[in-house]
Amino acid sequence: MDFEALLTYKPIDQGGRTTKAITGYRPHIEFDHIPGFLTSGAQRFLDQEEVGAGEIVKAEIAIATYYGIVGNLNLDDTFTFSEGKNVIGTGRITNIFNKNLLNVYSQKQVNNLIIRLESAIKFAHINKVLLVQNIKISIDSNKDLIITGFSKSQNFDMISKKSALLEINELKNTYSHWIGIIPSFKNFRNYINPTFVLSYMESKNGFGICMANKDGITWLIEL
């Protein structure tokens, strides 16, 4: 389970469910401070097995996907849960079990990061490459966003497919953190799923290891 929340199910006359929800029910979830990043969350009700319209219940929730959510949650953050386009209830976080979801930035750091990222993307459009937190931001000839990270390994022979996949997933999580805390990113839908590249060394002697996009993983070298 990722977090605990107090859930309020809407009454039927306000669009609530007409049947009871059984523990384990998995509606869609959208956090109010991260609009546009939908996931689903299994609700394990505490102290009861089912919940009807108009009821309030505590539940532990396990979310299905973390994109845009990693490092972006605080206690008391609110969210809606829905079936299709029909919002059937609201929730408020009361405890966070998955520490990877906790917000790690102060508001001052968030403000600085917003300036850095928006500047980086602006400059990338005029064929300049900027580094933000040791991650390279660029835009290719197709105007697609490229996010390049560098392997932490000091010895290339120590890199395996398994370790490379772990590192590129870490790169994805860092980027998902960024887009979750920067409201203006919701206006850049083509940036929600960029191409991620894992490289060895940030120098003219460096080279790409693998890249990942919505179509999957492509290996740039043989490991």
Provide keyphrases for this structure.
223 residues, 35% strand, Elongation Factor Tu (Ef-tu), domain 3, 6-stranded antiparallel beta barrel, alpha+beta, 2 helices
Q: Could you give a quick summary of the protein structure above?
A:
With 223 residues, this protein is an alpha+beta fold. It has two domains: 3-101, Elongation Factor Tu (Ef-tu), domain 3, CATH 2.40.30.10; 107-219, no CATH class.
Report on this structure.
The protein is of the alpha+beta class and 223 residues long. 17% of the residues lie in helices and 35% in strands. The strands form three sheets. Strands 1-6-4-3-7-8 form a six-stranded antiparallel barrel. It has a six-stranded mixed beta sheet with strand order 9-10-11-12-13-14, covered by helices on one side. A two-stranded antiparallel ribbon has the order 2-5. Strand 11, helix 2 and strand 12 form a beta-alpha-beta unit. It is elongated. The model has no long low-confidence stretch (mean pLDDT 86).
Share of helical residues? 10-25%
Spatial order of strands in the largest sheet: 1-6-4-3-7-8
* Total domain units: 2
Instruction: Give the CA-based shape.
Output: elongated
Total helical segments: 2
Q: Care to count the β-strands?
A: 14
Contiguous low-pLDDT stretches (5 residues minimum) are none
Mean pLDDT, to the nearest integer, reads 86
Radius of gyration from the CA trace? 20 Å
Order of helices and strands: EEEEEEEEHEEEHEEE
Query: Structural class per helix/strand content?
Result: alpha+beta
Strand content: 25-35%
Q: What does the largest sheet look like?
A: 6 strands, antiparallel, barrel
Tell me the distance between the termini: 35 Å
